[in-house]
Amino acid sequence: MANTGRGRLAACALALTALAVGGCRPDADTLVVYAALDAEFSRPILEEFSRQTGIEVRPKFDVESTKTVGLAEALIAERARPRCDLFWNNEILHTLRLQRLGLLDVYRPRRADEYPAAMRSPQGTWHGFAARARIILVNTELVGPDDEPRSVFDLADERWRGRVGLAKPLFGTTATHAAVLFATWGPERAREFFLQAKPNVQIVSGNKHVAQAVGGGQLAWGLTDTDDALAELDAGRPVKIVYPDQREGEPGTLFIPNTLAILKGAPHAEAARRLADYLLTPEVETKLSLGPAGQIPLHPSAESSGRVETPNTVRAMSVDWNRAGEVWDETARFLRDEFSGE
């Protein structure tokens, strides 16, 4: 009986060991990515990585109007037990929030140093690539060449009252743009600008909706991103892209990168590092550039589509990203008070 009991115990132990090993094996070949870049653009890149490496990627996407905020809040809520391995953000502001909260791990992808220093964390907690520009999209049937807006400041010009669009400035690249203005101008001047613009602008839920309203003639022009502007151009709408603030003494056009960051305590950190190495390459930037979104490559050897300007072809705004992250809480309080009810 004793031998039989010991045999059963041994068999159970072997079975448990087999279950443990078998249970870990598929999990070890899987990583979870929270992706704010539209699924139609990011999913093919992630699928190609899986084909090349055999690592299954499970992406989590979110909705158009609040996707960056929603994913960032999920990461904060999960901080005690992280589920996400790598955060692929389509902007930078909420990546900076996560950095300030201590949620990002340090990793320097193989080719990280080949990217502009201004577009990566000195500590190695985030890396920028594949940017979009904040541009003015003009309906050419409603606005003549001599009347085209040339500056972000034109949002505050009362002659455009009710005819200009802005995405709700609490989310996405519009929130990033607002934080940059607060950081660059100082809070007093930035608040004055937004208060002057408020009665002029029609607030819509997202940058895509701004572009669609301009393309459809509901708005004369609006502030949006290059990828949404390209969608209207590709659809044959009567629109034109204007890169703002290009005259002498003006700050230049804001370029906002996608960012990637590995979460501290990521369940599949090694796989996340392999994905970071894969994403931060000129080959991936070229795919994103030549695709329908027309992302703007930051690596010097990546191929640009030529459909949009780059920081090398127009005056680019100089940004202190860390400062923009630091002033976001103050910026957000003001924007919520003034624009959340629109």
Please provide a written account of the structure:
- This protein is α/β, with parallel strands linked by helices and 342 residues long.
- The chain has 12 helices and 9 strands.
- It has helices at residues 2-28, 39-53, 67-77, 93-100, 172-185, 187-197, 207-215, 226-234, 269-279, 282-290, 321-326, 328-339; strands at residues 30-35, 56-60, 86-89, 127-139, 164-167, 201-204, 221-225, 239-242, 255-262.
- Strands 1, 2, 3, 4, 5, 6, 7, 8 and 9 form a 9-stranded mixed sheet that branches.
- Strand 1 (30-35), helix 2 (39-53) and strand 2 (56-60) form a beta-alpha-beta unit.
- The longest helix has 27 residues, at 2-28.
- The protein is globular.
- Name the average pLDDT: 90
Question: Any idea what the CATH architecture of the largest domain is?
Answer: 3-Layer(aba) Sandwich
Helix content: 40-55%
Radius of gyration: 23 Å
How many strand units?
A: 9
Number of structural units classed as domains: 2
Decide which structural class fits the backbone.
alpha/beta
Strand content: 15-25%
Q: What name goes with the CATH superfamily of the largest domain?
A: Periplasmic binding protein-like II
Give a short account of the largest sheet: 9 strands, mixed
Offer a quick outline of the entry.
This protein has 342 residues and is of the alpha/beta class. Helix content is 42%, strand content 15%.
Pick out its properties.
42% helix; alpha/beta; 9 strands; 12 helices; 2 domains
